[in-house]
Each structure stands twice: as structure tokens, then as C-alpha cells.
Amino acid sequence: VTVLIHHCILYKKAEVEETLKRIQGQKGVQGIIIVNAEGIPIKTTLDNSSTVQYAGLIHQLVMKARSTVRDIDPQNDLTFLRVRSKKNEIMIAPDKDYFLIVIQNPSD
Amino acid sequence: STSATNEKTNMLLMSVWSCFFGQDEEDGTEMGEGDEWMQGKTLIKPLDQLDLTEAELKEEFTRILTANNPHAPQNIVRYSFKERSYKPISSVDQLAVHFVLEGNLLHQDSDEARRQRAKQGGEDAGDVEEGGGEERADSVESKVGKKEQKITNQFNFSERASQTLNNPLRERGCQTEPPPRANFSATANQWEIYDVYLEVLQKQEKNKEKAKAVPKKDDDKGKKKMMLVETQSDDITKVAKVAKIIERMVNQNTFDDIAQDFKYFEDASDEYREQEGTLLPLWKFQYDKAKRLSVTALCWNESYKDLFAVGLGSYDFTKQGRGMLVFYSLKNSTFPEYIYPTTSGILCLDIHKHLPYLVAVGFYDGCVAVYNLKEETLQPIYKSTAKSGKHTDPVWQVKWQKDDMDNNHNFFSVSSDGRVVSWTLVKNELVFTDIIKLSLAGAVSEGPEGVQLPIMACGTSFDFHKQIDYLFLVGTEEGKIHKCSKAYSSQFLETYNAHNMAVDAVKWNHFHTKVFISCSSDWTVKIWDHTIKTPMFTFDLNASVGDVAWSPYSSTVFAAVTTDGKVHTFDLSINKYEAICQQPVVAKKKTKLTHIEFNPVYPIIIVGDDRGYVTSLKLSPNLRKKPKEKKGQELPKGPEVEIAKMEKLLSLLREPENSNA
């Protein structure tokens, strides 16, 4: 039983890696950053300085957005956040312990 | 005189008595009280005592004893300058001085004192010494000793002080290591409090469960191992759900125009085209590992309207290999949601109407299997084996049925081996029941030992009636359609000589209970009324028809796909003879379309081809026309309107027939 569980988790890990690769390969995607609950980036495809900058700024934004949603109704929770700007779009999907940031330029 | 003194003594005595016994003026019992005292003494009468009469003796004289000085003047008057008159002074000094002796004090060292001492000198030397004992020791010593010594003044105060040695002050300090400090800040919001409450609740529930469950050692070990593995890889696997959401978001951006079209685009040019409609291509779904396979089955999920299943396999007899069961969502066209590789090619599938995670699959090798999408494994939860009654030929169609009397799920399958089998999911097993055996009427073959065996027909498709539970249709390879009942296992209710080649699909109409449609490789599509043995409508599509489907929104609209890559859409209420839309949907001409399905809610269709692609197309408004009733009789009468529409069409057809007959 334990062997099966181990395989499942490995498979899951491979699946997630593959999903991230696919996202990176999508049209116009400039970068992906995975940030943990404290705001520290754990995985990124951008350069270090941009990563740190994005992680720090977006972490605050997500906390604020989440707080807003939950204050209105504590049983509700933030699913995702899109920030569309002139040049690109920043998509953030938060989770309990992590959140994923993807920067895409859809018009590419 | 003695009498006067006696009188005075008497008076004193009296005053003394009155002092003792109160100063009461009215007290006249002095004599009486005094009597007690004086009884012990004998009275001597003096000679010159007055003789008083009895009356005079009994006369009472009141004496008042006061503390006042009898000699003190009682009526001193003084002149008061304030009031300019003489005023009597009320308070008079009552002090009576009886005796005064003035003392004489001499300093002992003074001349006079010395002279007196000299006089007394030899006589009272002892007394002087005694008297000097009281004097200070110092002065006696100094007197005895030499006068040259300094005489300390007994009145002078001599201060005596001494200073102690002050120890030098020493400061001693020690410093501890400061306790580690960290800045902590948090907010106390309503939702944070809510979260904490939820956690506590969950813990409580877990504790309850633990208390109930008997702890097993093996389970604990297993759990421990699981925990270890989890901690190692939790950083990436936890991102799985979030990554999925992000992927969909990115896809939404990439295919933004398609999504917009899907939702909002209505072909305006349809107004100018009288009856024709078009199909707008939307997403295209492909999975690179399924490139060599053809789409052999399509099914929409009833609960999740954007999810559909694709069965992949091969129709080519010679090229049989593996297959795949793939699920796509409209939200992500680049990659499937679920992928299940199979050893044999899939030929049909069906998703349970109420349980969106149960999928029944029929394989080319004759097996049937049930997959549970909720499970993590890639294996089906049930699979039929050679022992458990699997078909000996490819399974062409599976369909879920309503749960049976024991609330077990069950489904039917039809196969080329001529059997229609019902499979029931009982706990861990798949139990089969032969429902009907399709035998060729009259055809008998010689078996071993001269036994005559009926030749089995090959079932290629079936469909169950929407309302009448036991009624179903089976299409065979010989081109016949049999109307069967679940109750009768050996006989058909009706047989229709439908086609010249194998019946690829047979489907009941969603609204009208009597109408069904069939298509075949003999290039035709036929519409039937099950009470009449001949078809109502026949359409020739110039190519082998792979599949046909009724639309869920109209009783007169249906679509068919042909091997020349075209989708033919018909609306019988608009045009009874021709398709209102004939559109090629695939790029390469050699691609054959194999299956078609309408989405239950959205105006889109999915079309599968033999290269493993699934294309989604949007139906233009002309293809979705609902009959225009009189004002006020619109949509509320949905299904009935549809039935009436169909009935109207059929009645038109029947009348000439009746008149002919």
C-alpha cells in the first residue's frame, strides 16, 4: 500500500511539473513564479531580481484581496486574481500554502 | 472664749461632716449620722455649756460646707473702663495660703556656701560627704584632685564621634544573553477567527473518530510512512490544484477570441440566408499521444456541462492496438483533464447521468470496464473477464440504466457476438445477465454432431427509450433494427429492415416518444415511427454515415457526420428534404468523421474524426430555430411544442400513406 501511495505522489509530482511546462509553453507566457506562504519564491522561470520584486509586491496584494473577500463572508475564499495592464496580464491563483503567479502577454 | 472655740470646733466638725456627707443644704441628718460615730465616746458636759430648751435643741441649723475660702471677699467690685462703671468680679481667688516657707539656694562653690561649710566644717564633715555623693563624680574628683586640671563643664555638651572605615564600592554586573526575539504581527479578522474555529472543530472530530476506531498497529505504520513521503514532496504536489486553475486562466487568455465566440457570437448573416445555417469552429482538442488513434466514442457529462469523454481506438480490423480514454474540458483545450490508457481499443463509452464520475467503457476485445474518475488509479474499478461473461466480439455500445431494485448501478452492452448483456455492479464484482440473444430469424447452421445452432446476428448499436424503460432498439450488422423488450429474452417485438449495410447508430428522439433515427454505411439516414415498419424519412448523404444525433433542444433537428468530412444538419420543420447545413469541418479531405454529439445546454457540437481530433463547433441561429408560436404561447410549453411539431410532420406523411393504403 505504501509503495502505491509513493507512486501516486511521484506521479502527481510529474503531473504538476508537466502542467507547469505546458503553461510556460503557452503563447505569450513570460514567466511563472511559485511563492510560498511567507512570500518567498520557491520556483521561478524569471531572473532573480524580477522574481523577488514580483513575489514581494504580489504577496501583499493577494493578502489584501483575500482579506477583503473573506471579511465580507468568512466562508468564501479567493479563487484567483487577474491584473490586466497595458502591457501584460498577471494571473495569480492562491492556495492555502502557496500561490502561483503567471505573467502573460495575450496579444503576442 | 471656750464656748466660742467649742462652737468653732463644732462648726469645723460640722463642716467636716458635711464635706463627708455631701454639701446638701437640706440635709439635716448630720446629727443623726454623727451619732453613730460618737456613740463609742462618753460625753462630758462642760460647765459653761449653754442650756437650751428642747425646742431649741431640736432646732435645725443648716450648715453648708464649701471649698470656698471663708476669708475671701465675696463682693469685690472693680471699675471697668470698658463699661465705665463699677462691676462686681464674680470670680474671686479662693486660694488660702496656710503656710509659706521661702527657701534659700546657694551654689556650693560660691563664697557664702564655703563660709557656711567652714562653720559647720569639722562637725559635719561626714554629712558634707554624704551630701556630695549626690553630686557628679567629676566634680568630686576634681575637687579632691588638683585644681589645675581642666574642669569639664557639666553643662557643656561634648560631642563624640568616630568614623568607620568605608569599604570601597565595587560595581559588579553580569550580562545574560538576550532571549531571542522576533517581530510578530497579525491581524484578528472575522475570517481568521472563523478559520481557527474550523480547525478546532476538525480536531475535535478527529479525536472523536480516533476514540471510536480501534487502533491497529499496521495502519499506524502505514500512516507514518505516508506522512514521511508527503513531507518530502509536498512543495510541488500542493501546487497541483493551483496550477490547474492557472492553466485554465492562461488558456482563457490564449483562446480568448474563441471563448468570446462560444459565449456571444451569433452569426448575423443568418438573417439573410433563408434557411441555411453554419457551423462556427471553436476549440480543437487533440492529445499528441492519441494521434494514431481514431475517435471511437464521444459522450458529454450531464453534470459538468463543459466536460466530455473521448474514447480512442481503431475501427481498422488489421490495426488493433492500444486505446485511450480521455476527458476534456472546454476550459482547457490544450490538455486533457483525465487520461486513462488502455490495452485494447475503446469502441464505446457512456457516462452515468447522475454520477458524473462513473464511466462505462466497451472494448474491442470484448471486455467492458467501469472507471471511477474520483479514484487516483489509472485502472478501472471493474472489468469483465473471460470468466465473468465478457463478450467474444467487440462491444459496440454501452449504456447506463437506472439503478436496479437493490440500488446497484447497472449498464447494458451490445456486441457483435449477438448478445445484449446487462452488467450489474455488485460490491466488487461485475455480474452479467444475458438479456437477449440476437439470432438471425430462421437462419440455422449445422453445428457439431448435427445440432442446429442459430446464427447470431451482430449487434452494432442500441438505444433505450427515454420514457418506456423496458423498450429498446438494437441495430445489427445485417442492416436490421430490432425493437426489443427487457422482459422477453428470445423474441423481438418488431423488426425493421432498415438498411443494406450495418446500422451504425440508432437513436430515439428526445421529445417524440415514437420517433427514432438510424444511420448506416449505406449512405442513408432514416427516420422512423416505431409503429410503422417503413421509414418516415430517408436521406441520402453521398457518403458513409458514421454517426447521427438528435438535438436536445428541438425534436426536428438532427445532425449526421460522414466519412467525407462533412457535418450535415437537418431541421425537418424547415426543410424536409435537404440539410440546412452541409459543412466540411476538417482540414484534410481524407479525414473521416466518426462521431458527433450535441452539448446538452450550449449550442455546440463536438465531432470526432479518425485522426484523434475532436473539433467543437457552434451552431448558428438558423440551426437552432424554435417554432414561432402565437404571441403568448412561447417557451413555457417547450417539450410539448416539440412533440406537436414532430407529430404535425408525421401526420402529413401518414395521411398520404393512409390514403394510399
From TrEMBL, chain A:
Subcellular location(s) per record? Cytoplasm, Cytoskeleton
Task: Recite the UniProt keywords alphabetically.
Answer: Cytoplasm, Cytoskeleton, Dynein, Microtubule, Motor protein, Transport
Its BP terms in the Gene Ontology are: microtubule-based movement
Q: What does this protein do?
A: Acts as one of several non-catalytic accessory components of the cytoplasmic dynein 1 complex that are thought to be involved in linking dynein to cargos and to adapter proteins that regulate dynein function. Cytoplasmic dynein 1 acts as a motor for the intracellular retrograde motility of vesicles and organelles along microtubules.
Q: Which Gene Ontology CC terms are recorded?
A: cytoplasm; cytoplasmic dynein complex; microtubule
- List the transmembrane segments: none
Domain Roadblock/LAMTOR2: residue ranges: 16-104
Output the Pfam families linked to this UniProt entry. Robl_LC7 (PF03259)
Q: Which top-level group of life is the source organism from?
A: Eukaryota
Main subcellular location: cytoplasm
What Gene3D superfamilies would the database entry show?
Dynein light chain 2a, cytoplasmic
Q: List, in alphabetical order, the Gene Ontology terms for molecular function in this entry.
A: dynein intermediate chain binding
- Report the family membership: Belongs to the GAMAD family.
What is this protein identified as?
Answer: Dynein light chain roadblock
From TrEMBL, chain B:
List the biased-composition ranges (Basic and acidic residues): 133-150
SMART domains noted in UniProt:
WD40
Renumbered to this chain, region (Disordered) spans 110-162
InterPro entries associated with the record:
Dynein_IC, WD40/YVTN_repeat-like_dom_sf, WD40_repeat_dom_sf, WD40_rpt
Signal peptide residues on this chain, from the entry's feature table:
none
Does the record carry Transmembrane as a key word?
A: no
**GO biological process: what's one of them?**
outer dynein arm assembly
Q: What is this protein called?
A: Dynein axonemal intermediate chain 1
Q: Where is the composition biased (Polar residues)?
A: 151-162
Where does the record place its WD repeats? 496-529
A Pfam family matched in the record: WD40
Mention one GO molecular function.
dynein heavy chain binding
UniProt keyword list: Cell projection, Cytoplasm, Cytoskeleton, Dynein, Microtubule, Motor protein, Repeat, WD repeat
- In its UniProt entry, the species of origin is given as Oncorhynchus tshawytscha
Q: Name one GO cellular component term.
A: microtubule
Where does this one sit in the cell? Cytoplasm, Cytoskeleton, Cilium axoneme
The function of this protein is: Part of the dynein complex of respiratory cilia.
What binding partners and quaternary form does the record give? Consists of at least two heavy chains and a number of intermediate and light chains. Interacts with BICD2. Interacts with CFAP45 and CFAP52. Interacts with CFAP53.
Q: Which residues form a coiled coil?
A: none
